[in-house]
Structures
1.
Amino acid sequence: MAATPRLEIRNLTRRFDGRAVVDDVSLQVMPGQVTCLLGPSGCGKSTTLRMIAGVEMQDSGSIWVDGELICDTHFRIPPERRRIGLMFQDFALFPHLSVAENVAFGLTGSAGEKRARVETMLDRVNLRRFIDAWPHELSGGEQQRVALARALAPDPRIMLMDEPFSGLDNRLRDEIRDTTLSVLKDADAAVLLVTHEPDEAMRMADDIALMRHGKIVQQGAPYNIYNAPKDKEAVAFFSDIN
Ligand code: ADP
Ligand code: MG
């Protein structure tokens, strides 16, 4: 029997002003896998992620987690009960909370249990020494690592990441991509990572879904997509990699 996907979206469509910005998108992500939704700005990546997170409603289609329906046009599990971790570029740390309080934000349990979990998560991103620091005392890359620790602290089944590294400079980005990947692999969540940068997808993905004008036009292993882009537009898109 085939394994059940952690995350499955079926025929998801979202229209704005009559235009389908997400157009009949279907996708599966297995636990422990990183799938990249890769495509140019405006193709519908963030809208897809927002529907999975539950902060945007689809016009048609359904979302399934571990084989259970979590959302269609008649039924909807609220965002906070979906066990989904979020890491968005503009979803920064809370500036008025310490690093420890940021990481503890989504946790339940006793103060002692929360503290232990915070320490574990900060160890994973190698930032335990900053446990009592304030966000503004950290560099941009360190803040992103704390955001990763915060997102993974409640042990989400799914991690949604929307261009999480685009605010960082190039040198830092390579490093944080590697750290992120190793932390994600330990977490065993299904990861859906949105990016418009082919080299980021090549570096991080087990599976790439190439998106254009609201549709997935090609899907497969990074190496296969890179070596056999489906059409001229896909070739042009990948030719940016250096
Ligand atoms: P991406 O993340 O790939 O850059 P988005 O999902 O943000 O793309 O947007 C896809 C398209 O949908 C864009 O043309 C955008 O302008 C449009 N769009 C997104 N959100 C809304 C909205 N709330 N109202 C109207 N149009 C929207
Ligand atoms: Mg976007």
Note: The chain has a mean pLDDT of 92.
2.
Amino acid sequence: VQVRESLSLIEKDRKYVWHHISPYKEEAPPMIVEKGEGSWITDYKGNRYLDAMSGLWCVNVGYGREELAEVAAEQIKKLAYTPMTNSHKSAIELAEKINAMLDDEYVIFYSNSGSDANEVAFKIARQYHQQNGEPNRYKIISRYRAYHGSSMGALSATGQSLRKYKYEPLSAGFIHVSPPDHYRKPDNISVEQYNLLKAREIEETIKFEQKETIAAVIMEPLITGGGVIIPHEVYVQEVERICNRHGVLLIIDEVICGFGRTGKAFGHQHFNIKPDIITMAKGLTSAYLPLSITAIRKEIYEAFKGTEENYHFRHVNTFGGNPAACAVALKNLEIMERENLFKRSEELGKKLLNGLEELKNHPNVGDVRGLGLLAGIEIVEGKETKKPVSNEKIAKLIAAAKAKGLIIGRNGDTVAGHNNILTLSPPLSSTDDDIQFIIKVLKEVFFCE
Ligand code: PMP
């Protein structure tokens, strides 16, 4: 016992905690975060950082919101738990609220995480087709580079082989197509043409696989974790048309894009489409408590209505839709509305992109792109070759920003082993000064190092 007590916090962390992804590095131990306020977090030694990733793209209303703590405490005192085989007021009100934010009528299924929400979507898609007399429709199409979660089904839909290959065999029936990464398009076609070609690759895949075997396409409105790939609107609309043409359900993963990240309530609302199923997590509660949603279009839900056993959707999630998380989500949405945060995301996003524009003068900055408060900076060896820089170079940029008090992320074509896109996703509640700080630090990192 004495030995344990004499260990420092950082030593105990190394000894007892298995971190997500990163192995413990002596020269760069993990940050032990103690508190957060607004866009800033403070570690246990008192160092402050602007968290330009909102944790993992999720603390949309910023840190330290007392209202959210209070509403959680009140709800826990009144009713800490009831399973969603029952129901409760916050779950009902939240389902109503989410419907008001969407452009069609949806029924809400609750779980705890983005991965959970996507698993639910896949199971519903498969069962829906069975109940419609098409039991062979089981395959799910998704894109390379996309991330859809870490549980076996969601990982199977994920198109990042580095995250997958050690855990194979994964779930059967998941197929990938290439993403509309028009930064790397051939010179002789337009962005629009390239996007249409990429959408049609989905149609070809459906035909090659026999359309009677395809249950659904899952995609984010824009690929976030795979390196901020923003499609032309013709892409998204064409994918919707293709799905409709072949009786394939369209699942839209709004886990990151939802709740104002891209400057609208939901990312797909930039493209004027009506998804069959929409998954949400992260910004739903701004990560104050775990909660996720699979929103299912009314017509699909109708196929599950009936008294016989085979109409049951066999999926239980003990903590899904727990009362405190639903109450927090409602209050979180109230804050977003009161502070007009979706609009703020759009406006601050423009300021951020404008400020980052200057980075394009750097020989290694191939592209700067973004929508709302979500941005990516693609780092290449040269603008002509577009060859991604090494992961070591990216790690150096991230460390240089951190040394100046700025936390940024990275991602990219991990299929090819590249992580060459710096990512930014600050809280929607960021101040103008916060945005200027991000721009200032990044300019220093690129031009003064
Ligand atoms: N979908 C997307 C687009 C995500 O970015 C993530 C998580 N980063 C997930 C699903 C999985 O969410 P969770 O980590 O809550 O399971």
Note: The chain has two domains: 31-61+340-447, 67-338.
